[in-house]
């Protein structure tokens, strides 16, 4: 901290990056989490939310950069930033520097929450995904509507919408004409461009019911991984980065180390992309169980994997599926939601004596906590990588192999 300017503004010098996209600064001994800053910058910030003296920390956002980092660049996203959309919260960072920053955050979280020293923060880095670069990588997006039926992106932690749609994550033309249409009020507009290059626009959740209607294309997209095709609802989960499904599938295949006749569990399996790769490894004499709570995802998995006799698809919570298993797995692959797998699921995996686990996490803190839970049950980290699967944002994808003899 250097000096106050107004009651709601401060001039601060930022320290290290924190999980969630902010940098840490201090003012009179209080921690201030500063968004839209890079480590080592001197910035004028506007305080946000409750700033009474009883709070243990404050939140702030940059309104002026007084001494910029060498890693700061002109924003790569025209609509992001302070008073803009919340889509690309690291668009002002050089992409290579952003990968280093993300790696450092994951290393910090693993040490603090998982008790695991992955790498020194200064040496950690997230790996790029494919050769798409930092822009134009997203194939699916969800927009909300305002009371006038206009679509937009949300501002950060706000119900207010930004109606410019030229987010840098999206390839050119993906949202052509979308802003010119009046959509049903209180609806969500889902837009996806599939692996055939076809655009699909689906509207869900409009006032008066939960009807889903197709405005363009079809209700399902065509997605291809490893020579196999899936038909996935536009509203269902599919990796947003065009190169991520093939990359993760290949990595899971390599790190699972399966052989013919083995048994594998694909937990939080979605449409069964990993199940397909695992089935190829275990062959007709093996067994693959893929589990997900989504009925739509399970339907996609059953259709895409119908020719694989070794695969069974279960629509159920992972916890209940594990409690009902009587056959021991050689490998379990987990791709849980942002909250992570958690204690109960990891306890069940340990109790089932699964010797090898491939765990994927899309949130650094929950991933680190899960790694700590595994380690507390006798598992060792054999491999760990961090991927920059969401360029221009603070988000990452982490993959680890946990092994127990």
Describe the structure in brief.
The protein has 405 residues and is an alpha/beta fold.
Distance between the termini: 51 Å
Mean pLDDT: 94
Q: Give the name of the CATH architecture of the largest domain.
A: 3-Layer(aba) Sandwich
**In total, how many beta strands?**
22
Catalogue the unreliable spans: 1-6
* Strand order in the sheet with the most strands: 7-21-22-20-19-16-17-18
Number of helical segments? Answer: 7
Q: What is the strand content?
A: 25-35%
Secondary-structure element pattern, one letter each: EEEEEEHEEEEEEEEEHEHEHEHEHEHEE
In the CATH hierarchy, the third-tier topology of the largest domain is known as Rossmann fold
- Characterize the biggest β-sheet: 8 strands, mixed
Number of domains: 3
How would you describe this protein?
The protein has helices spanning 95-114, 244-256, 273-282, 295-304, 318-323, 342-351, 364-376, and strands at 3-6, 9-13, 22-27, 30-35, 42-48, 57-67, 127-128, 140-145, 151-154, 161-162, 188-193, 199-204, 213-216, 220-225, 228-233, 263-267, 287-292, 311-315, 331-334, 356-361, 380-388, 397-403. Helix 6 (342-351) runs parallel beside helix 7. It is an alpha/beta fold. The chain has 3 domains: 3-67, Nucleic acid-binding proteins (OB fold (Dihydrolipoamide Acetyltransferase, E2P), Beta Barrel); 140-233, no CATH class; 244-403, Rossmann fold. The longest helix has 20 residues, at 95-114. Strand 5 (42-48) and strand 6 (57-67) form a beta hairpin. It has 7 helices and 22 strands.
